[in-house]
């Protein structure tokens, strides 16, 4: 998420890769304080951003680094009319109050002229200490120390958009935190057009609209799009007259960004040819809580005939997981603008997972692949891809020639594997064999 936002605002990671990988504290190169504040207003993964004044692998190195920091950059925050306080944060270790005071007193060489105000200071300075990631092996001295001026931090975004308070929800409404992470992976910005082909109750549209993008979506479920049928909320039997996607965006003052949601099958062409969308952000059905289906005809193998409360009838047939994802990639390759991003969740069975099974397309470049655990033997990967090549007719079915197409077909049985408890059975067999 941070990498995507940095590429959007023009910043980058520092060259110190070792710190970035093995520490919760990351050093970033951001052109201005305004950009740093803008990044913090969007991110849900970072807690705070600081202007770094000094850094070292020991207290001595930190103090030497602080002495070399330009005095003219310090003075605006240390003058006699200002108030300040110094806060200490240690990762993976707890310090006593006496130890904290000792570390603060050691900074007396800094030219602080203002008054200490612990309740409402103008400027807050932090000492950050990193004691590693292993709680069972905490060192006496920290691996890294940092000192800087606190610039911005926010965690209210997730709470204010909580699904618990949302007007219209479904069985699989996306968690607010994850929906904002997905919008950030998609580098959604004002005036973009963002599309969700499995829109459901529109949870992913809300996060994109919050960032100023115009949003639209499709879903095969007539009842969900029209807000009809049984409610998903506890102690509520039927959906109310105003439970729909538009009402969700209206709840957050985002209705002006709502284009429309259509009842449509994502596997069938409904859009005119051309590059229409700046980002496609979606969570396809896995067949766990929502069925994987597409429209069919009476001549095809019929799975079921469904009738909505509006006497709307359609025939649906099986829609394998592998086909869902390859159709999605093909659609993104054709309808994304150049540089546009596809962000989606890919369910996987962990004992069989390798990176080779991630669906690919010659027009799309894999940007990131992050895991969220679902159970001991299943998880889902947040896949981010970027369009790097214009779509040609010969690219339409190019994945069929790719060796990666066949390995992913194994995930068509994801639902059975999700409920199977295979891992437990294997562990029991191994235990019995050891006896």
UniProtKB/TrEMBL annotation:
One of its GO terms (cellular component) is tRNA methyltransferase complex. Residues 165-294 form the Ribosomal RNA large subunit methyltransferase K/L-like methyltransferase domain. The keyword Ion transport does not apply. One of its GO terms (molecular function) is tRNA (guanine(10)-N2)-methyltransferase activity. Keywords: Cytoplasm, Methyltransferase, RNA-binding, S-adenosyl-L-methionine, Transferase, tRNA processing, tRNA-binding. Its EC number is 2.1.1.214. Catalytic subunit of the TRMT11-TRM112 methyltransferase complex, that specifically mediates the S-adenosyl-L-methionine-dependent N(2)-methylation of guanosine nucleotide at position 10 (m2G10) in tRNAs. This is one of the major tRNA (guanine-N(2))-methyltransferases. Belongs to the class I-like SAM-binding methyltransferase superfamily. TRM11 methyltransferase family. InterPro entries: DNA_methylase_N6_adenine_CS, RlmKL-like_Mtase, SAM-dependent_MTases_sf, TRMT11, TRMT11_N. Residues 21-153 form the tRNA (guanine(10)-N(2))-methyltransferase TRMT11 N-terminal domain. It comes from the Eukaryota. Signal peptide: none annotated. It is found in: Cytoplasm. This is tRNA (guanine(10)-N(2))-methyltransferase TRMT11. It catalyses: guanosine(10) in tRNA + S-adenosyl-L-methionine = N(2)-methylguanosine(10) in tRNA + S-adenosyl-L-homocysteine + H(+). Part of the heterodimeric TRMT11-TRM112 methyltransferase complex; this complex forms an active tRNA methyltransferase, where TRMT112 acts as an activator of the catalytic subunit TRMT11. The lineage of its organism: Eukaryota, Metazoa, Chordata, Craniata, Vertebrata. GO terms for biological process: methylation; tRNA processing. Pfam families: Tmrp11_N, UPF0020.
């Amino acid at each position: 998420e941070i990498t995507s936002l940095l590429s959007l605002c023009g910043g980058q990671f520092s060259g110190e890769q070792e710190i970035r990988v093995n520490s919760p504290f990351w050093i970033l190169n951001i052109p201005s304080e305004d950009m740093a504040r803008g990044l913090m207003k969007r991110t849900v993964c970072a807690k705070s951003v600081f202007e770094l004044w000094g850094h070292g692998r020991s207290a001595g190195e930190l103090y030497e680094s602080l002495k070399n920091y330009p005095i003219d950059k310090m003075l605006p925050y240390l003058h006699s009319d200002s108030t300040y306080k110094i806060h200490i944060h240690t990762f993976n270790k707890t310090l006593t109050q006496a130890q904290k005071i000792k570390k603060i007193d050691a900074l007396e060489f800094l030219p602080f002229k203002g008054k200490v105000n612990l309740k409402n200071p103008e400027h807050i300075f932090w000492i950050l200490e990193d004691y590693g990631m292993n709680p069972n092996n905490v060192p006496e001295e920290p691996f890294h120390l940092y000192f800087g001026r606190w610039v911005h931090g926010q965690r209210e975004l997730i709470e204010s958009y909580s699904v618990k308070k949302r007007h219209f929800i479904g069985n699989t409404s996306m968690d607010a935190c994850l929906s904002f992470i997905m919008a950030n992976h998609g580098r959604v910005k004002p005036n973009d057009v963002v599309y969700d082909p499995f829109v459901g109750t529109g949870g992913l549209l809300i996060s994109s609209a919050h960032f100023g993008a115009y949003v639209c979506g499709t879903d095969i479920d007539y009842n969900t799009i029209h807000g009809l049928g049984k409610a998903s909320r506890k102690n509520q039997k039927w959906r109310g007259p105003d439970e729909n996607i538009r009402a969700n965006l209206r709840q957050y003052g985002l209705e002006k960004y709502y284009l429309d949601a259509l009842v449509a099958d994502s596997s069938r062409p409904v859009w005119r040819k051309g590059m229409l969308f700046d980002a496609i952000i979606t969570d396809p059905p896995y067949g766990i809580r929502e069925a994987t289906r597409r429209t069919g005809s009476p001549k095809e193998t019929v799975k079921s005939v469904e009738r909505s409360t509006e006497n709307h009838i359609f025939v649906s047939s099986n829609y394998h997981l592998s086909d869902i994802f390859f159709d999605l990639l093909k659609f993104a390759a054709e309808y994304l603008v150049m540089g546009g991003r596809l962000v989606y969740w890919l369910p996987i069975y962990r004992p069989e997972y390798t990176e080779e099974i991630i669906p690919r397309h010659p027009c799309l470049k894999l940007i990131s692949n992050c895991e969220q655990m679902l159970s001991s033997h299943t998880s889902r990967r947040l896949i981010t891809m970027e369009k790097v090549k214009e779509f040609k007719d010969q690219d339409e079915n190019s994945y069929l020639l790719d060796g990666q197409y066949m390995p992913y077909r194994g995930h068509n049985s994801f639902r059975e594997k999700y409920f199977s408890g295979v891992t437990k059975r294997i562990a029991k067999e191994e235990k019995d064999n050891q006896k």
